[in-house]
């Protein structure tokens, strides 16, 4: 019986993980300061061979982009190499990070450095050399040459944790053919439109509860109007949302008293991301002696512990149904368990990574959307008009409805341009030497793709600092001229975001209903909030907003309540 063997495997797993945890660190030459690289925790790309011509004059495979404008190498021209690139030395990098204070605003450092060094430069972090790429053309060239198994950095701190605890890698941390196998199993029910739209009702239930929570927060602690620190509230929404999709389980995050486990899970995600960019500064050999290494490990422990409890619960539920001869159907995790393509350990590795990827990403994005909509009432009104036109009266938007809301999508698109959750992505060339611009780079070159800098390139996005959703509308003059690699917030190709479709569905349903229900107004103190980078881009301080009921509110509340029953 499948579940009996799964439970046996799970028990065995628990046994192997008890007792003292050995540290198997060893001195690594490349674990010096990698602060910029810590922003590269998330990578993108796809193997794309069109437009590339293969040359074998050096005996190796070399991919040369054939038609992009930045490529100036002609026949017989000796390519420049990494040695010819300008860029800050190791001490200069340290100076920028810790004296000039860019450690938490590395996204802004991309812009400053590209002004000084041009679109392609190298940064040194001890023995590690990173090639920074800061135009849409050059980013396209890197991504189109990434090979069959695109690789991010080796992420030694995340991988070391898994070795320590004997845990499996998930899609975020796995590499090579093993990564490809995991993605082929996880992809269909995360990315295929028919599966994703089937999560619509479940997510809408969470949205309904969030709308009620906003009302409750306003009444209890906001003098009837204000919700303080909207982002923290949205973390709860996002955790509840992803849990409902993966486990078909409600976690109680929208209750007046949020369960301790949920609060702790969300804090652990934040702490893990924050400590990631500190741990990576130090050589691996000293990690066990760092006070925050213990906290880093403890954060991961907690993430895995919660995921394990939820997986275990689902296994028991399914076993019970099988014992009672009942039909065992269900959504994401049920499908993974039933399909028997992965072991429980592998499922746990993937589920933990999906959970952690699902919390800070959508929530930060919605926070910034609301922040701008509050500041720009005309844009908010245009969105409101679109939502009530597609869903008049009590009608609750569904996945199908959002496909008739281009302005809603443009608002999210523009938010992700101004605040890309992953401000700097990366690629490590593993399969071939590649040509980028007029430079030839050897295998194992680490490219840092400066998406944040490119998102603010005024040649691609006129008035780059303005929040202008209309630039994303089909038919607009600007849209027609946009570079396809100007803003790629979910990445590109086979290593692109696994949760993209679910994230978009969550954001569309939540934002459309919040705006239908409430008029959002800014913090009357006039506070402005800037982004910082803690591996992911997030607000530097709490975003406080006022939520004013619109006329249609009570009906929608009733419809929402009925919908929930
Ligand atoms: C606004 C929301 C989100 C944004 C902007 C975003 C962005 C990204 C980006 C840029 C990457 C890197 C892609 C690459 O390396 O090529 C990524 C990877 C990933 N994302 Fe998301 N993400 C979001 C939400 C989510 C959600 C909700 C989930 C989980 C359901 C998720 C799961 C993942 C996973 C598992 C990966 C690793 C994929 C791989 O390496 O194969 N993401 N995301």
UniProtKB/TrEMBL annotation:
Gene3D superfamilies: Cytochrome P450 (1.10.630.10)
Organism superkingdom: Eukaryota
GO BP field: C21-steroid hormone biosynthetic process; cellular response to peptide hormone stimulus; cholesterol metabolic process; cortisol metabolic process; glucocorticoid biosynthetic process; vitamin D metabolic process
Region (Disordered): 58-84
Listed Pfam families: p450
InterPro entries: CYP11_CYP27_families, Cyt_P450, Cyt_P450_CS, Cyt_P450_E_grp-I, Cyt_P450_sf
Binding-site list for heme: 497
GO cellular component: mitochondrial inner membrane
Cofactor: heme
Entry keywords, A to Z: Heme, Iron, Metal-binding, Monooxygenase, Oxidoreductase
Family the UniProt entry places it in: Belongs to the cytochrome P450 family.
Full protein name: Sterol 26-hydroxylase, mitochondrial-like
Protein species of origin: Sphaeramia orbicularis (orbiculate cardinalfish)
Protein encoded by which gene: si:dkey-91i10.3
